[in-house]
Design brief:
heterotrimer; A mainly alpha; B mainly alpha; C alpha/beta; B: mainly alpha; ABC transporter involved in vitamin B12 uptake, BtuC; two-stranded antiparallel sheet; globular; C: alpha/beta; six-stranded mixed β-sheet
């Protein structure tokens, strides 16, 4: 095993982690501010991917598609919040789970209605095609590096937004004391819609970025959603920092597990069997990590006070 | 008429319908409806199991498909080994006898539920929902990536497993068998609900601090409820695999977990006959809508959304009024 | 002298810079009512949480019937004989008054893992539970869900549940709260007789009740016990008058 291969896999893990962070950040923000568990967050990710693929196909420009994915996901999120989600804030988690489960059915089937059952494909924009050399002799896809870069920019942007701006101040206040900010005259309904749309836009962005790496299809949102759940459970629900750490952890552990476990097991058993057991174990690895973390810290690594 | 007796009446009517339709269908030679009714009975049983944890204990498990699927795989693996004449792992003899398979499925689900519950129950609320979901995904991905029993493609049961004194290959006897198990499950649910354990379990949902303040630790009560709940759902899984003569990872999928919750909420949470009412409506909608449009899930979503937003208390709540507690 | 039933030794608990419990030592002896009083924010709630096991002290020990309570959760402490009531009624709201008490009876019998026999027809549960409701004067409301009881009735039900546990010591957290003068008077008479069943640690704001009932009073201010003594001693203690009673005057 060469160092270049190891670095490549590490970068792949990082890239997966960044994608998960984009999804998990919105999920955890929405839970932290509104106390809502939103299963349909994965559908917003899917909407972003479809919007990007459709607009890119029509205009020939990936960048227009990317802008469309942000707009479409944010608009879909805002619409969802105003029409349905805001009726659920006062309900228990069970009702929230059910209503957003119903939304998944509607959005998945609705998308299939609009775009058909065949997957769409999205090309990597010319600007980001090609590879960069890695130390140790390998090469790495420029596009994946760019995704990592986007993730870093979003993480820093979110940090600045929440710690430095008036909107961020209201979000923090909303997390600690809802009645208080209502009493201070902040329009809480608008704040909730904005937060929801922001989370949706981040998920949509993730969908568009991933769309160029894999096919764009109905049902792509659910595996991503469940991984994002694992991320925020590990990180502590409501914590953006936790989402970042959890996402990187899950991304790297998952990728490295799939890469290394069969090789490690091959030291103790025949290669074919090692591949088999290694693959099965690797597919369970992040859940085992989650269970271990929860056994030690039931509220995650960066649990809030609430 | 009081709400209680009205609920009893509606429940009795549901049970009569469930029996009458397949019997009539058999007489006029329409075995498809027998299969439909069997599907209703089995899904209802799975939801009765979940209702122990969710309805009585307030434990919103979003991972009960794990137990449904495990039960299914037990039936599939027993059948495959018996078909090929190979012994099972750990030196167990393979058999096609359903009572043995059921007990094995329940034992396995109980054993798996204990560690999953022990970790998940250290948390509550949204954490519990997400963690049970994650554990179910873990088992799902294991089933997908482990090729010995079909991996992603699933496992076929070439000959339906057997039950002493019944021809299970015929639709109607198999339906009656499943109906009998469902009724046993309903009786068990009602007994638990009225028992000392059920009292403690319901108290743990209403007010865990109160339960602790009389000297009963909620954790132990919830863990046992979670395991019992998993066992009943696992038994339903074994029946389901035999109905379809097929088991695949889709029985373990998170979609299945969601459906089980939907069945309970459609029917009415914590009510004895809620799962049956929910399963009837769900399967009939699936069938009726599926006949009209291939986009039936879209409309199912709309209906479900309407129930959650506007019809709290589920179908039995609409038909029989508010639930009463003793 | 016999060992006290409940003994707190040098208990300390801080939240950040706030010393909520600052070296509290306190004991409860057989047959007595020991009242714990103090102005709002004195740290009474934090102290009760530590005695019941829902907050872990930073240091110090709690001994109950000679046993160190460290590491035992609330349920375990209750099983050892600590019967408590809550400042704000804490009941199973969907259960009837009777079933709330039956839960305590079954807990005392140590038999919650029975799955099949119906409790409704189980005389070993309903009998004792009804007796407890009668003792607090709530028998006519036995079938009413706890959520539909009046505030005063819920306070009575709390006491009935604590009685049903047959505890070795009672810990009552402001049992008079929200009761009218008539209700307070009745409950005072009831508690007066109850001390012979088990000693009572009584946290209470109602000074008439405290002075009528207490064998001893401890005064908690800013997390410290500033005085412990008989009613007469506390009434005349200059520090108490300054720190606490003075506030009210």
């Amino acid at each position: 095993m060469s160092a270049a291969l190891l670095i490549e896999q590490l970068l792949n893990g990082l890239q997966l982690g960044v994608m998960l962070f984009l999804i998990a950040a919105g999920l955890t923000l929405i839970f932290g501010v509104m106390g809502l568990i939103n299963l349909a967050h994965g559908s917003l990710y899917m909407i972003g991917a479809f919007a990007c693929a459709a607009v890119a196909a029509a205009t020939g420009s990936f960048w227009l598609g990317l802008a469309a994915s942000l707009g479409a996901a944010a608009a879909a999120g805002a619409l969802m919040e105003v029409a349905i989600i805001r009726r659920l804030y006062e309900r228990d988690h069970l009702d929230q789970v059910l209503a957003t489960f119903a939304l998944i059915l509607i959005l998945s089937e609705g998308t299939r209605w609009l775009f058909g059952s065949f997957p769409l494909y999205l090309d990597i924009p010319p600007l980001l095609q090609g590879a960069v050399p890695l130390p140790g002799g390998g090469q790495y896809q420029l596009y994946r590096l760019a995704i990592i870069g986007v993730g870093i920019v979003v993480a820093v942007g979110l940090y600045l937004l929440i710690s430095r701006t008036r909107l961020g101040m209201r979000i923090r206040a909303g997390e600690s004391d809802r009645e208080m900010i209502a009493a201070l005259g902040v329009d809480i309904r608008t704040l909730y819609t904005v937060v929801f749309a922001l989370g949706a836009a981040l998920a949509g962005l993730a969908g568009a970025l991933v769309g160029a790496l894999q096919s764009v299809q109905v049902g792509m949102g659910e595996p991503a959603l469940i991984l994002a759940f694992v991320v925020i459970v590990i990180g502590g629900i409501g914590s953006i920092k936790g989402a970042l750490v959890g996402a990187i952890l899950v991304g790297v552990v998952d990728t490295m597990g799939r890469f290394l476990l069969p090789k490690l097991l091959a030291l103790t058993m025949p290669a074919s069997q090692a591949n088999l057991v290694g693959a099965a174990l690797a597919s369970m690895l992040i859940y085992i990590v989650m269970a271990l973390i929860l056994a030690l810290r039931p509220r995650g690594l960066f649990a809030g006070q609430a | 008429m009081t709400a209680l007796s009205r609920e009893t009446l509606v429940s009795a009517l549901l049970l009569v319908l469930l029996v009458a339709i397949p019997v009539a269908a058999t007489m006029v030679g329409e075995p498809f409806y027998v299969t439909l009714a069997t599907r209703i009975a089995i899904l209802a049983l799975a939801a009765v199991g979940l209702n122990i944890a969710l309805g009585l204990g307030g434990l919103v498990s979003f991972g009960h498909a794990a137990f449904f699927g495990l039960g299914g795989y037990v039936a599939g693996i027993f059948a495959t080994h018996a078909f090929n004449g190979e012994p099972l792992p750990f030196g167990l003899a393979a058999t096609t006898s359903m009572p043995v398979i059921w007990l094995s499925a329940m034992a396995l689900c109980g054993l798996v539920a204990l560690p999953i519950g022990a970790i998940s129950l250290r948390t509550s609320g949204v954490y519990f929902i997400m963690i049970t979901l994650a554990f179910a995904q873990m088992i799902y991905y294991f089933a997908v990536s482990w090729p010995s029993y079909g991996g992603e493609d699933g496992l076929s049961i070439y000959v339906r497993n057997s039950f002493p004194g019944l021809n299970t290959a015929q639709p109607l006897p198999y339906f009656l068998l499943c109906l009998g198990v469902l009724v046993a499950g309903l009786v068990l649910f009602q007994l638990i609900k009225g028992s000392r354990f059920g009292t403690a379990l319901e108290a743990s949902r209403q007010n865990p601090t109160r339960l602790a303040a009389v000297g009963i630790a909620p954790f132990g009560i919830r863990l046992v409820a979670f395991a019992v709940s998993a066992m009943v759902t696992g038994l339903a899984g074994a029946l389901f695999a035999d109905l379809n003569r097929f088991v695949s990872p889709s029985m373990l999928s998170w979609h299945m977990s969601g459906e089980l919750i939907v069945l309970i909420i459609l029917g009415g949470k914590g009510r004895l006959f809620g799962p049956l009412a929910g399963a009837m409506v769900y399967v009939l909608f699936e069938y009726a809508l599926g006949g009209i449009t291939e986009r039936w899930q879209f409309f199912l979503g709309l209906i479900l959304l309407g129930v959650v937003l506007f019809a709290r208390g589920g179908l039995l709540g609409l038909l029989a009024g508010k639930a009463r507690h003793g | 002298m016999a060992e006290p039933v409940l003994q707190l030794s040098d208990l300390r608990k801080s939240f950040g810079a706030l010393k909520a419990t600052d070296g509290v030592s306190l004991d409860l002896r057989g047959g007595e009512i020991h009242a714990l009083i103090g102005p709002n924010g004195a740290g009474k709630s934090t102290l009760i949480h530590q005695i019941c096991g829902s907050i872990r002290p930073d240091s110090g020990t709690i001994r109950f019937l000679g046993e160190d309570m460290a590491g035992l959760d609330m349920a375990a402490r209750v099983r050892r004989g600590l019967g408590r009531s809550f400042q704000i009624s804490s009941l199973a709201p969907e259960f009837s008054a009777l079933r709330n008490v039956m839960l305590a009876v079954q807990a005392r019998q140590g038999s919650s893992f029975r799955f099949l026999r119906p409790v409704a027809s189980d005389g070993s549960l309903t009998g004792p539970a009804m007796t407890m409701l009668e003792r607090v004067g709530l028998e006519a409301r036995a079938k009413v869900p706890a959520a539909e009881l009046s505030h005063g009735e819920r306070r009575q039900l709390e006491i009935a549940i604590a009685l049903a546990l047959g505890p070795k010591a009672f810990l009552f957290d402001e049992p008079m709260a929200g009761l009218g003068p008539e209700g307070s008077k009745r409950l005072t008479g009831f508690l007066d007789g109850l001390r012979h069943e088990a000693p009572i640690l009584l946290v209470e704001h109602d000074m008439d009740a405290v002075f009528a009932l207490a064998d001893r009073i401890s005064v908690l201010v800013y997390g410290r016990i500033i005085a412990t003594g008989t009613v007469a001693e506390i009434r005349s203690d200059p520090e108490v008058r300054r720190a606490y009673l003075g506030d009210a005057a």
